[in-house]
Specification:
heterodimer, A: about 375 residues, alpha+beta, 60s Ribosomal Protein L30, Chain: A, Phosphoribosyl-aminoimidazole Synthetase, Chain A, domain 2, 7-stranded mixed β-sheet, 11 helices, about 35% helix, disordered C terminus, B: about 375 residues, alpha/beta, 5-stranded parallel β-sheet, 4-stranded parallel β-sheet, 15 helices
Chain lengths: ~375, ~375
Amino acid sequence: MSTEQRSADWAEEAVLRHAGEAHLTREEQVLERIARARRRKAKVSEERITSAHGAGGKATHTLIDAIFLEAFRNPLLESLEDQAVFTAGGARLAFTTDSYVVSPLFFPGGDIGELAVNGTVNDLAVSGARPLYLSAGFILEEGFGVADLERIVASMAAAADAGGVQIVTGDTKVVQRGKADGCYINTAGVGLLERPVSLGAANVAPGDAVIVSGPIGDHGITILLARGELEIESDIESDTAPLHELIAGLLDAVSGVRCLRDATRGGVATILNEIARASEVAVVVDEAAVPMRPEVRGACEILGLDPLYVACEGRLVAVVDGGQADAAVAALRAHPLGAGASVIGRVKDDPPTLVLLKTEFGGTRIVDMLIGDPLPRIC
Amino acid sequence: MRFVDEFRDADKAQALAAQIVALCEPGRQYKFMEVCGGHTHTIYKHGLEDYLPDNVTLVHGPGCPVCVIPMGRVDDAIDIAEQPDVIMTSFGDMMRVPGGRGSFFDSNAKGADIRMVYSPLDALKVARQNPDKRVVFMAIGFETTAPSTAMTVLRAAAEGLENFSIFCNHVTIIPAIKAILDSPDLRLDGFIGPGHVSTVIGCRPYDFISRQHDKPLVCAGFEPLDILQSVYMLMRQLDEGRSEVENQYTRVVPWDGNRKALGVIGEVMELRPYFEWRGLGFISHSALRMREKYARFDAERIFEIPGVRVADPKACQCGEVLKGVLKPWECKVFGTACTPETPIGTCMVSSEGACAAYYNFGRFSRERVREATLT
C-alpha cells in the first residue's frame, strides 16, 4: 500500500473516531487510536524479505502472523509458544525446531553446534518437558573445512550429553560455494511432559512476579564483539547453556509457575512484550533490579544498544505467582545456572499490553517490541 | 559504572526537580527547546519528564542528523549504490530512512551492497579490503561528525587510496537555530544547547541568541542529570532576568571550541551556497561540501547523481515537528499511518528523532501509569 493511500485510510478513520473518547485529553485520544491500530491484523508491507524480518522483533512477528500462521493455522500453532505441546498415545509431548546461522561459527564460550543443541533443549524445557531426542540437519557450503565440521559436531555431542538428549536422526546437504556462509544447522526436538503443568504466555495475571535467572545480554554482546568489527576487547563469553535442570528444580519447588521462556533473539524485552499481549496485562520492570555484567552494560552504552533487547542463550525468564516469588528465586539460585536470579518486575492490570520500565534515573518509559535490527545512535 | 552512574542519580534528580519547582512563577508556562536529538533520546529513554512540573515543557528541536536529510538525498545515495562495483556505507540510523524509492534496507533486498559502519574509518577499512570496488561513505551529521569525515579524507589522501569517496551531507547547526528563531509560530523561553556540536564549535556562536533574541541558552551534556541541571540553569536565568549563553557541559565543551577539529573541517570542506533540509526547506550556507582540492574523494563529482528534489509525502508533518511547532503526537499520521515499522517521515526513523523517541519510549498516559509504577 502506498504511503498516500495509508495516510488517506487513517485520515478517514480519524474522522470516524467515536464519541466515546470525548472524556480523554487530546493526547490520550491519540494514544487510544494508536493502541487500536496496533491491535489490527498485521500485514507484510515490504515486497521483499529484509534483515528486520529475522531480528526477532516486530517484523518477525508480522511475518509469522501474516504469512506462516495464515497458511498453517491450527490450534497448536496459534499459541505461538517456543514449542507445541500435544497428547499422543497417552503421553504429553513437546515438539520444537530451530535453525542456527550464527556468525562467527566459533565464539568465546561456545560455537554454532553447542548453540544448536542447547537452543532446542531449552525450547522444549520451557514447556516443562524433559527433552528426549533431537534431530540435526546440516547445510554445508562447498569448501567448508572438515576439521571445523568435526569441531562443531564434537561440541554438539558434548552438549547433547549435558542436555540429557540423544541426536537420533539427521540430514546433510551441500550447497555451492557462496550460497551459504560455511555451515547452517537445524535441530528439532521432542520432549516428554511428566508434570501436569501448562505453561504459556497467556497464563499470566496481575500480581505475578517476573524473574530472570541471571545477568542478561552476554550472548548478543559476545557475538557482536567476536565479529571484530568494533575493536572493543572484553573477556565476556556467551552464556549458552541447557536450562532443563534449572527448570526442573524450579517446577519441583514452586507450584505457581505461569510461564517460562529462554530469552534468545529480541532479548528479555521481546518476551515480556509477548507476555503482556498474550495475557493482556501490564508488565512493570524495575531497571535497577535487572542483573547485568558491567562489560555488557558498558558495551551497550558505547554502542547505543538497549541491553533489554540483547540476546541471551542460557537465561530463563520466569513469571510466577507473586506470593511465591521468593521461593522461586531461592529454587533458581540453588542451581549454578540460576545463581544470579532475581525478581525484575511485577505484572499489573493497567495499561494492558504495555511493558513499562521504571528507569534507574527514576522516570518511566515504555519498552516496546524490537523494531528492525538494533541500530546504534550516531552522535 | 563510572562517568555514567553519577549522572543518573535519582536522589540528585529529586533535589534538582525541587529547585526547578521553587523557581516556577505561578501561572507562567515555560517552554524550552532541546536543539539536539541526542537530548530528545535521553529525555524519553530515562523518563525525565516525570521530574518536570506541568508548566515546564520541553520542545524537541531540529538537531537530529538523520531527520534533516531530505528524501532526494536518500534517492541520490541509492542511485550511487546501484552503480556497478559500488559498496555504499553509512551509519546504522540511515538504513531505514525512506527516500522516494524506498530505504537502504529495501535497496539491499534488491541487490545493492549498502553496509552499516560505526565510523567513517570503518568505511575506509572496507575500501582497503575491496580494492576492486568503489567504496562510498554517506556522511551525515552536524559539526559533531564532520571532523571525523574530514580526518578520514585526509587519511585516504595520505594512503593514496583511489577507490574511496564521501557523499557529503554534513550540515551546520547555527542556520537551523536561526530558522527556528525566525519561525513565527513558536514562542520559546530558552534553549538547551547541543552539547556534542559545541565540543567542536564552542559556545561563542550562540551569542546572537542572547544578544539579538534575548533568550538564554545552556550547552548541555547528554546524561539525564545534565539535562535536568540545564533546565534549572535556564529557569534561574529567567528568574534573575538574564539571557546569557551558559555552559553546563564544562567537562567536555571548551568555551572556544576545538580549533584543531574546526581546522580539519576547513581544510577538507567548504560551505555550500544552500542546502535542502527536510521539513525546513532550503537554507543558505547551512551545509558543507568537499573542497575542489579533494575532488577525487567527492562522490558528487565522481558519480553522476540525479540530484532531484523529492517532495515529502503530503501527510508528513516532520517539518513542523522538527521546528517544535507540533508535538510528535499532534502530527496527523503519528502512530497510525506513520510508525517505526512503516515510517513516512524521518522523525520516526532515527533513534534521535522526536517521533521515534515518543513512540518507542513515551507513548503512554503518565496519569494512567502513575499507579502501576508506584509499588
